[in-house]
# Entry
Amino acid sequence: MGQVAVLFRLMPQGVETDLKAVAEGVRAVLPPGVQVRGLQVKDIAFGLRALLISAIMPDTGGVLDATEQAFAKVPGVESVEVMEEGLL
# Structure
């Protein structure tokens, strides 16, 4: 069994959303075996910023979906999108 590198984009509920609090919430809800390798804030438009999260996880069924669902439940997150995915 290998590992998968995934890049997630989390969109906040609004321009006033505290992305530091969202990042802390993301780390708190990680499923077992998932590791955050990087966090980056990216400007989108008109003051709106997204949180990009690089994560490493086992290549087993359901882990990616569980991670995406966990991120979606973090307070302040409007949507979660998988931007890139690849085997390591």
